[in-house]
Write a structure and sequence with these properties.
Layout lengths: L12 H10 L32 H4 L1 E2 L6 H10 L12 E3 L2 E3 L3 E3 L6 H4 L1 H13 L3 E3 L3 H5 L1 H15 L7 E5 L1 H5 L2 H7 L4 H5 L3 E7 L10 E4 L1 H10 L3 E6 L4 E5 L7 H14 L4 E6 L5 H10 L4 E5 L10 H4 L6 H6 L9 E4 L5 H9 L4 E4 L1 H9 L4 H19 L13 E2 L19
Parallel strand pairs: 4-14, 5-6, 6-7, 7-11, 11-12, 12-13, 13-14
Antiparallel strand pairs: 1-15, 2-3, 8-10, 9-10
Helix pairs in contact: 1-17, 1-18, 5-7, 5-17, 16-18, 17-18
Length: 429
Amino acid sequence: MNATSMTAGGFPEDAVRARARRGAAEVFPPAGAYGSGVFGAGHDGPAAPTAGPDELDALRLVPPVFMPRRLEKLIELGREPGHDDVDLRTRIGGFASALPLYLSAFGSTRAGSGDLAVAAARQAGRLGIPMVIGENMVPVHGYRSVLLARVEAYTEAAAGGAGGVVVQQSTEDADSEVWNLLYSDPASRALRDSGRLGFELKIGQGAKPGLGGMTVVGPAEAERLAGAGRFTLGEELGPDGGRLRCATPGTFTEEIVRQQLRFMRNNFPLARTWVKFHPGRDIGAATGTAWAAGADAVTVDGAEGGTGWAPRAFLDGVGLPLAACLRVIDRPEGASLLASGRMWEGGRAARALALGATAVGLGRAALLAVDEDPEHGLERLTEALALELRLLISALGQYRPSALSRTDLWPPGTAAPIAPLAVPAGPRP
């Protein structure tokens, strides 16, 4: 795997790799630098994103002085509460989860479909967090060697009843009948019958809002895919004969989304139904449509999300950043809102949770961690993130992630908590 290819947008690869090696020890700066170094967003340091903070990173978590919930907890416990009393267990899209985290889809690139993906599945199963398997796996790589290998690795490692597996389906996947194959496969029976299997209707992604998945393939692979007739292949790119492999983004309206969710519930009654949206200007209305139609979870992939493999014109200039998406979404009580986009440490995760997310997804960070240590890298990365979440949630006077709110977030240079961002739901008249 070429790890550098997953660092578009200033993703802090070195910091992720250090966490995969050392776990919770990396929550703190090196002891030798205490008193002599400056760490954090906007400064040079081992944890500083090279491209500087985006809107979500720039928000400050601001604890109150008076904490009624801490007093309630003190009375409940009969002692002063600490960060170890924060309970991170939650429910994500119909699944019990040990943490407010899930393993995001990796897509059909070599990094997301080979041994690293299987190792990540195994660790996610041990962690008891849900795992999403991305689109186009079957049309590109086949059913049993890739998709089923990840499902089986997750199932074999899973302990207890927490977690679950969610499988995306693109237009090309639908032609390959991916959901039908998996739902009827004896290898998925334990997940299906225990309510830990789900399907995700994919409507775009953060790195390429409005487009389908794409990558460049060599001449031999292009010829193979052209023979299968499942992807659009563009003209040659450059002197090496590579060609752009494009998946169709699909066509959606409010009614089509409602019909698709109805189809999913009717045809796969034991599976959870998820919907993933790209960061469009009408994201508030889109999420509301999905929940009203009965979706168990809605995933929002901010403009920071995805592998970053996209036309350069898209990476920095198309789609809403994750913070803006979360600010315009009105999540109903009890609904699951999942957020992805440059998640790798507890501070960013806590700010997303305070903006209304139920859980956050680890994508590139998970791949980097597993690349660093295929046996335990993701577990150590998660260990560090979980410690930071407990510390931050406790500092805010709360003891569950769901208790965080927008009143905990203040934009820099202001004297008031964050306010909802007004974005038009569609074109202006």
